[in-house]
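FW: tagging you since you asked about this chain on Friday. Here's the raw sequence from the shared folder, copied in full. Didn't touch anything.
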Amino acid sequence: MSEAIATATSTEMQNNFGKYLHIVMNGGEVIVTRNGKEVGRFIPRRAAVSYLTDSLTGILSENADLDLAREERLKAKYESAD
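HL: got it, structure written out here
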């Protein structure tokens, strides 16, 4: 697997999608730009899942009670407004 990183304008991406799809299918990444600014990244699915799990690490504990957390957050928000 190649771990290439390519950069393409949005027009290049649209006109040569197969080329960039091939890069991603082989483990690479494509940075998409528009007017010289990065607007997105085309990455392999395994990398997307990794980004998501890495970003949640430490945020949710095994026994997290989401309803309790929401209640506490709302209580803190509206009690501080008084």
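FW: Strands lie at 5-9, 29-34, 37-42.
HL: agreed, and The helical segments are 10-15, 17-25, 45-56, 66-80.
FW: great, closing this out.
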